[in-house]
Amino acid sequence: MARYRYGLDDVVRAMNEVVDERPGKVDRRPEGGLTPRFVEHGQCACLVGAMLYRLGVELRTLRNLDREDQRIRDSVHPFWNRFDPVALALLDHLQNGNDGASPWGRVRWGAFRVDPYWIRNNPKFAYPGPWCTDENGHHEERYEAPETGGNGEAT
Predict the structure, then answer these.
(1) Main-chain dihedrals φ then ψ at residue 40, nearest 5 degrees
(2) Which of 97, 99, 120, 139 could join 107 via S-S bond, C-beta 3.0 to 4.6 A?
(3) How many angstroms separate the CA atoms of 44 and 87, rounded?
């Protein structure tokens, strides 16, 4: 029996489904300088919220996480114990990129971008996180760098 309900492959699958549907989506709250939320007006309001909903997490659970008002890495909510630590690290990284008001496609690409400079000079620093390694097969070759227009919307 698996120790965690959600593993890295589950999170990557949900991420790909959500981002592929709306790669140019930019969340309104961080873009307007407001506190990011998982849920707003009864709907998922951010990339990670949409991913969690896609994984089967109920909106009321997401609202409870909003009430805690903590970043994923700082949260003590027991909900996060359902995730493999590497999957949780990816969610936290995606949350940080999303809260910077970047298009979802760019957030995903950045989470899996392997830096060629570091590959040549010190491979230990080339990967953005433990979710992106040659061993697990998750790396940037799967994702194209998104082009953006003048309004920040992916083209």
Answers:
(1) -145, 130
(2) 97
(3) 20
Contact of 51 with 91, CB cutoff 8 Å: yes
Residue 39 φ then ψ, to 5°: -130, 140
Task: Please state, in angstroms and rounded to a whole number, the distance separating the CA atoms of residues 72 and 8.
Answer: 16
The pTM score is: 0.82
Query: Nearest Cα to 16, choosing from 149, 84, 101, 111?
Result: 111
As given in the structure block, the two tokens for residue 2 are 């698996």
Q: What is the rounded distance in angstroms from the CA atom of residue 107 to the CA atom of residue 118?
A: 20
Contact 84, 74 (CB under 8 A): no
Are the C-beta atoms of 7 and 84 separated by less than 8 Å? yes
Kindly state the tokens that stand for 85. Answer: 């630590």
User: By the 8 A CB rule, do 109 and 145 touch?
Assistant: yes
Q: pLDDT tens for residues 42-80? A: 999 899 999 999 999 999 999 999 888 888 888 888 899
Tokens 């989470």 correspond to 111
Q: Could you report how far apart the first and last alpha carbons of the chain are, in Å?
A: 43
